[in-house]
Design goal:
With about 170 residues, the chain is mostly beta strands. The protein has a single domain, classed as Jelly Rolls (Sandwich), CATH 2.60.120.260. It is about 10% helix and about 40% strand. The chain has one helix at about 10-25, and strands spanning about 30, 35-40, 45-50, 65, 75-85, 90-100, 100-105, 110-115, 130, 140-150, 160-170. The strands form three sheets. It has a five-stranded mixed beta sheet with strand order 1-5-10-7-8, with helices on one face. A hairpin with a 2-residue loop joins strand 7 and strand 8 (about 110-115). The longest helix is centred in the first third of the chain and has 18 residues, at about 10-25. It is globular, with a radius of gyration of 16 Å.
């Protein structure tokens, strides 16, 4: 089985290229309410909604997605951009991630985590919950998820998908 492992330089190159393409084609949304949920869907850049495999955990307020330009690709790079109000502090932020098979998440240019290439069912059932508050900032935020399918291209025999939900809680107006 083919294993994909990238150096930090390569990852950051993928991140910068994705953010540049996303900003050229998609306008970031201003978020001013106190409680926000941002989930993967076809509104994310380069994301196409796919059917959830029965082995994958359901993710409320998010859809499973994969590479919109090539659904049979062994890699999907999906991203979103949003602006948090400058008049509110970030009180908490959690990212729930379910991925078949493994992923790298980069928020605002900082790798939040980087899975080792593997086929680990716990990555998509029950998924993982990560505190990402320190990676977010008031103003513009970018999140890029690079998801990989272990063992080659995505197919019915070798499924792949990623679902992510970002829950953000902001303070009252400053």
């Amino acid at each position: 089985m083919k294993r994909i492992k990238y150096s930090r330089t390569k990852l950051m190159g993928l991140y910068r290229a994705q953010v540049k393409k996303m900003h050229a084609r998609k306008k970031s949304v201003l978020i001013s309410q106190r409680n926000v949920v941002i989930g993967t869907d076809d509104g994310w850049f380069n994301a196409a909604i796919i059917e959830r495999n029965p082995a994958w955990v359901p993710v409320n307020n998010a859809s499973y997605v994969w590479n919109a330009s090539n659904l049979s690709s062994e890699r999907a790079i999906v991203s979103d951009s949003f602006r948090l109000s400058l008049r509110r502090n970030i009180l908490s932020a959690r990212l729930f991630l379910s991925v078949d098979n493994y992923a790298i998440v980069i928020i605002n240019g900082i790798p939040v985590f980087n899975d080792d290439p593997q086929s680990n069912t716990s990555f998509f059932n029950p998924g993982r919950d990560i505190n990402v508050r320190r990676f977010l900032r008031r103003g513009l935020n970018d999140i890029v998820i690079i998801a990989f399918n272990f063992g080659g291209p995505r197919s019915a025999a070798n499924p792949a998908g990623v679902a992510a939900r970002l829950n953000i809680r902001l303070s009252a107006l400053l």
